[in-house]
Amino acid sequence: MTTFEIKEEFLIDNQPMKLISGAIHYFRMTPAQWEDSLYNLKALGANTVETYIPWNIHEPQKGTFDFSGRHDVVSFVRLAQKMGLYVILRPSVYICAEWEFGGLPAWLLQNKQLRLRSTDPIFMQYVYDYFSVLLPKLLPLQITQGGPVLMMQVENEYGSYGMEKEYLRQTKAIMEQLGVEVPLFTSDGSWDEVLDAGTLIEEDVFVTGNFGSHSKENSAVLADFMARHGKKWPIMCMEYWDGWFNRWGEPIITRDPAELAQDVKEMLKIGSLNLYMFHGGTNFGFYNGCSARGTTDLPQITSYDYDALLTESGEPTAKYYAVQQAIKEVCPEVQQAAPRTKKLQHLGVFPVTNSVSLFATLDAIAPKIQSTYPQTMEEAGTGYGYMLYSLTLKNYRHETKIKLVEVSDRAQLYVDRQYQTTQYREAIGEEVLISGKEEQETIALDILVENMGRVNYGFKLNNPTQSKGIRGGVIHDIHFHQGYTQSSLNLDAEQIAAIDFTKEADPTQPSFYEVDFTLAEVCDTYIDCRQYGKGIISVNGHLLGRYWNQGPTYTLYCPKEFLITGKNKVVIFETEGSEINELVFSDHALTAKQIEVEA
């Protein structure tokens, strides 16, 4: 049986080995894509693949687990082994990864007193409950049991959040109690403050760093930190950032391939690295993360292309070939090959078949929850997507004031089903003047609130703003209104299938647009969203993710596995009153820069 040890070097069967790894997130692509991505990693010259394991996709509701399809981590690891790759697993309950809430499940927010990533007994019980289901699936994959898994992560960048070593110790103890035998590690930034706060070096938990340049300087910090604790472990960068993530309304961030290749060469001469990301993939559905800048939340886009070595769809980039050459120069003995490429197609232009207003079909797709005070998305639904709050106000037959209190993230107000205003970020809380119809005794106020993504990093993880929907209430004149009807819209396959397109259409209201079409063959493709406003697209029940005309991306990637040879159904949920007339495919991604070039 193969052995793995961490001494002054990484040892495989007592032979020194440099770990050349790349990050591939099984949950950000379809299972049919895994093989090509893993093949291209091996062809690069790598010997290892690394992946996070997000808690929120595997336990979407407390006690309900999902390890099927895109969530089948065991099949992904077994496939990596079959293709001759070792595996690094990061099953920590927090992953960051520009993933919704850093991988923490939204249902944790139902307990408003819970302190996340701490020794809070309730939180640790939840951790144990989750690990007691997850880890037994991973144990047979360990190298000690004939599998490919070399090591597992205890916590992720904890030194950038807290310093409660007892929390780390309890997490480590749970993992070992449940049967983890391979070496454990932590990963943090490469400066003393976070290394002191986030590591368990005193308990022989291997220390790794996260950085993407200045390899000599960052590695020296890691080496000095380990030396002060009497360790002579090998240097490993667990996240060697080869690109970066992107946010709505900001330019795409790119990195020069030659510069990256030079930095990779420098790092490989020092030690081991894991390229983050090798293949980024897609934040399907509502799983994009969010950055926190001061008091402002900045949600990230659907594409997790990351300017990585493979594009979002899996195509090798100039970076791929530059890094492949860099690896060969430093490690001439590695086996390399030409990568696999992908075929993308423009599948055509198809007219909208039907449309219906959200208000007209609401009863068919979402149950109504009545309450005196507003319930949050976590209380009245899954915590993801949208929540429609409906209120009945007395009509005083003159202008009256409305104010939203403690609402996250984006709210659209409709008075008697007529669009009034949108409040987002700093605008939420500003007074809005409304008037009812003279002949009516009441005013119907509908508020569509969108969860645009919870923060995945930093101080806001325990901030009340991460509970989405209306937390405070709605002030009418100068008093809080009582009496709410909540409708949760997570737009899963069941809700999409229940839409009643025979009801009334009104493109000025939030609306669903249905496109029925037939394909003779399927292929990877993109959907061109340049003529749309803001919303989300479902392809045969699969949620691709969000689009928004703020950019910087104007397409949504659609893998061929979501399409059907024969009849297909695409449903677009458009929230901005932009009437949609057609579905347009594209054979490539469209960014603001790409559109400018093509023009």
UniProtKB/TrEMBL annotation:
Family annotation (PROSITE patterns): GLYCOSYL_HYDROL_F35
Residue ranges of domain Beta-galactosidase galactose-binding in the record: 510-568
Active site: 157 (proton donor), 239 (nucleophile)
Keyword Hydrolase among UniProt keywords: yes
One Pfam family of this chain: Glyco_hydro_35
Keywords, ordered alphabetically: Glycosidase, Hydrolase
Catalytic activity: Hydrolysis of terminal non-reducing beta-D-galactose residues in beta-D-galactosides
EC number(s) from the headed UniProt entry: 3.2.1.23
Annotated Beta-galactosidase 1-like first all-beta domain residues: 374-488
InterPro entries the UniProt entry points to: B-gal_1-like (IPR026283), BetaGal1-like_ABD1 (IPR048912), BetaGal_gal-bd (IPR048913), Galactose-bd-like_sf (IPR008979), GH (IPR017853), Gly_Hdrlase_35_cat (IPR031330), Glyco_hydro_35_CS (IPR019801), Glycoside_Hdrlase_35 (IPR001944)
GO molecular function terms attached to this record: beta-galactosidase activity
UniProt record similarity statement: Belongs to the glycosyl hydrolase 35 family.
Name of the protein this chain belongs to: Beta-galactosidase
